[in-house]
Amino acid sequence: MSQHDDTRVIGIDLGGSNVRAAVVNAQGQMLARDQGITPADEGSEAIVKSILDSVNRVLGQAHLAASDLSAVGLSCAGLSNPETGILYTSPNIPTLKDVPLAGLIEKELGKKVFLMNDANAAAVGEMHLGAARGARNFIYVTLSTGIGAGVVIDGKIYAGSTGLASEPGHMIISDEGPECYCGSRGCWEPLASGTALANYARRRIQEGIKTSILDYVDGDAERVTAEVVHRAAQRGDALAKEVIARTAYYVGVGLANLINIFNPELIVIGGGLSNIGDMLLEPAYEEARRRAFSQMSDVVRFARAKLGEDSGVLGAAVFALGEL
Amino acid sequence: MSQHDDTRVIGIDLGGSNVRAAVVNAQGQMLARDQGITPADEGSEAIVKSILDSVNRVLGQAHLAASDLSAVGLSCAGLSNPETGILYTSPNIPTLKDVPLAGLIEKELGKKVFLMNDANAAAVGEMHLGAARGARNFIYVTLSTGIGAGVVIDGKIYAGSTGLASEPGHMIISDEGPECYCGSRGCWEPLASGTALANYARRRIQEGIKTSILDYVDGDAERVTAEVVHRAAQRGDALAKEVIARTAYYVGVGLANLINIFNPELIVIGGGLSNIGDMLLEPAYEEARRRAFSQMSDVVRFARAKLGEDSGVLGAAVFALGEL
Q1: pLDDT, tens digit, for every residue of A271-284?
Q2: Which helix (H) or strand (E) is A98 found in, with range?
Q3: CATH number of the structural domain A8-117+312-322
Q4: Chain A: residue nearest B181 by CA?
Q5: Distances (CA, A) of B217 to A198, B210, B213, B275
Q6: Which chain B residues are closer than 8 Å to A183 by Cβ?
Q7: Domain A131-305, CATH 3.40.718.10 — does that match?
Q8: Domain B8-125+310-322 is in which class?
Q9: Contact at CB, A184 and B291, closer than 8 angstroms
Q10: 0.90 surpassed by pTM
């Protein structure tokens, strides 16, 4: 980030519910921000329009025109090719399939758009502005509705041979485990994500286990979320604690794999599920250390992500700055 | 490998049964070779002596002195740190623990010794002289008594933050699966290695399944090996075919993980177990493609390793040449 002081980029974070956009300067500071709605069910045209609306609002806030921008970074969950700008599939926006998302926005703004996976964006953001400053070999893992990861090797995102790496959320840790939307089964994601946690809680409730979790959702098991389970666990609910302990175990198994495969110096954990904090993460780290080679688990540090909700927009913006 | 024509290195492959050594020129050609015994139970002093004996014999064959060498490459199964030259642990040579192996040999020969994991050595060998020529992002997997791997990124071995990457043989693919010597359970290795195959065959035989496998080992189930199971399967033995199919399934599950994590262009399969060939590998590739994201499994090629028994010595030698 050695650009002139007047360099401005926009970072966009396209999520299943919201579009976020921010104008960011060469130092990685947000000068303006906006949040809009993702019309997830309405297809690519409506989604692109919503992105552009958000971009125009944030440009207005910053008293800028699109022509003042140096580039745009676009973060989106799912499988995408950063070289072609095509989004193949996004778990939270099923109407987007094989869409040349970067190209569609480039055409409207007249500026280069860098499309990237949300976890890769967050990894870049944490490296430059957050918990991974100074680290050269680390992994950012987002524990959220799904599980994503960005692997940084020698200070650069590891993209693989066609830009699709890395998807450890779909590494198999329990080969006969639950089916996964990806077509496989026993992947890390359907065992250790926020969705997995809530599903397991619901299943146990339906088995008739007595729990105060239902008090938080008017007795409607369908409305149980990871957050609600966490609140019940904080008040000592036995089922809630069991559900979190089980999720922690699976989080730890996956982390052990990442340690034995990558020998990283640091693993940064982000995503909504990680907000449960020590109750989830400490036993997960313990399981990982128990499972991985001590020579590798002894050197790895674990840290919580620092950028929170801003990781997507900031990471996308910082990535775009790095490409200038 | 742009060294002068008179550049000579030695590659050493320290295995559980044998020490191999070869004099190699700048073009990667073997000028002389030797094979000795590994006194695996006698500890580091005896093992170093055996290595030096082999080196001296091969130097004699090539009419060279140690002083004529530019460097030495040393390949050994197990966990080692290429920067310090320390071998932490080797599955087939349990008497070697935390031994400064490179340093001990350097002291005797007066030449720089590069210590590396045997799978990393084989990956380098296949990249320069074998099945991975021209590939920049690929994974070499050895299916042998254990499972090892060398990950090549942008033409270089991926070493991780402290030189210990990568050990996907100890990625967990079945979290409640069999115990592994590493302390974890359900790792790829105790499910998909040659040892795993033979163990499973023995277990099924002990359950009383009728099989011709025993005909090859004088009725002694303890002597069953992967090779014997393969021979019985080729003659149509039902249990032998079941055992190989089960191993293929687990090989495939692990390969799916490598595809989803690394998005490689190529996976090269070597090691003694891979000599079973299509009967093992085709169903393994099929399972991997079924499990991995199609966008990634569509681009990956699978190939058999080409260097065979020479992969260790050649890879170690070529690695040493690359460091000159």
Answers
A1: 999 999 999 999 99
A2: strand A97-99
A3: 3.30.420.40
A4: A293
A5: 53, 14, 7, 20
A6: 290-291
A7: no
A8: alpha beta
A9: yes
A10: yes
